[in-house]
Amino acid sequence: MPRSNRPRGRRPGGGDDEEVNLNRALFGQRTTERKRDALWNVQPLAATSANKHYTCPSCGLDIAPGVAHIVAWRADGLMGEADDLAARRHWHSHCWKIKP
After folding, report:
1. Rounded to whole angstroms, what are the CA distances from 56 to 14, 22, 96?
2. Which of 40, 47, 87, 98 is most buried, by CB atoms within 10 Å?
């Protein structure tokens, strides 16, 4: 009997695992970081997904489309998750790293 080269344990057509991995590759893995003042949700944004101009809250300079950067919002806000998400800000990766 000939040997099958088909991977075992995977469903034909991919399934949800491939979609999750694609989203993670395009949008990055969201993490939670503690900075001096609060707990923050941090989501890296790939250059291919950056389609708009943003202003970095740290340095005040423009983040142009096509530039990889960080999106951050409070994880411990008092007004709830919806308000925290609405108040998210786009940061240069370097500016986020040096944020006190």
Report:
1. 38, 27, 9
2. 40
